[in-house]
Specification:
The chain is an alpha/beta fold. The protein has a single domain, classed as P-loop containing nucleotide triphosphate hydrolases (Rossmann fold), CATH 3.40.50.300. It is 46% helix and 22% strand. It has helices spanning 18-28, 58-66, 86-94, 105-115, 129-139, 144-157, 173-188, 190-202; strands at residues 7-11, 32-34, 38-39, 54-55, 70-77, 80-85, 98-103, 119-126, 166-170. A five-stranded parallel β-sheet has the order 2-7-1-8-9, sandwiched between helices. Strands 4-3-6-5 form a four-stranded mixed β-sheet. 33% of the residues are buried.
Length: 203
């Protein structure tokens, strides 16, 4: 068995479609599994602890930072922290799987700088800022103020595109998914993909 201690990073401005693409990749590749992020933001009505996020108070999150229990973390908005637990990555790698990250641009940039060639980093770019505004409005989960805050941050995050391996413009979802699939296969190798699939079928 080849070393599976690798990861696929999907990053994008909020609303660009990275989570949808991430779920499609999970359906395609049984050797990928989500890394569940830690956060201090309040949970939404449909979110479950340990399934969507690990939820912490700000004080508990700061304690994790002091204990070096996080691979990376970022204060994405004032008082709102996101990060990756070392224990989460160890859990996935012990299962012989590869980690799939769906995370913000700064977090992805931090992981890429740490793990280098062990990462495939894909930047999902919205067709335009106006299309991004429309997607955020359609979510019905944001206030007008939070949308403007996210759009302002998106314009900043778009400047990070050159730091990642590939940029995929999500103008057409199926085309974006197909390109992401191709990049993952190039990264892991087709033979490795078949090997993992055989092992899962034998379990």
């Amino acid at each position: 068995m080849k070393d599976t201690k690798k990861m696929v990073l999907l990053t994008a401005p909020s609303g660009a479609g990275k989570t949808t693409i991430a779920h499609r990749l999970l359906d395609m590749f049984p050797f990928l599994t989500f890394s569940i992020s830690a956060t201090t933001r309040a949970s939404r009505s449909y979110e479950k602890e340990g399934q969507h996020y690990y939820f912490f108070s700000t004080s508990d999150f700061r304690e994790l930072i002091e204990k070096d229990a996080l691979v990376e973390y970022e204060e994405v908005y004032p008082g709102k922290f996101y990060g990756t637990l070392r224990s989460e990555m160890d859990r996935i790698w012990k299962e012989g799987l590869m980690v799939l990250f769906d995370l913000d641009v700064k977090g992805a940039s931090n992981l890429k700088s740490i793990y280098g060639d062990r990462c495939l980093s894909l930047f999902i770019e919205p067709e335009s800022v106006e299309v991004l505004r429309e997607r955020l409005n359609n979510r019905k989960t944001e206030t007008p103020e939070s949308i403007e805050e996210r759009l302002s941050r998106a314009e900043f995050e778009l400047t990070f595109r050159p730091e990642f391996d590939y940029c995929i413009v999500n103008k057409d979802l199926e085309q974006a998914v197909a390109e992401a699939k191709e990049r993952v296969l190039e990264f892991v190798g087709l033979d490795f993909s078949k090997e993992i699939r055989r092992e899962n079928e034998a379990k």
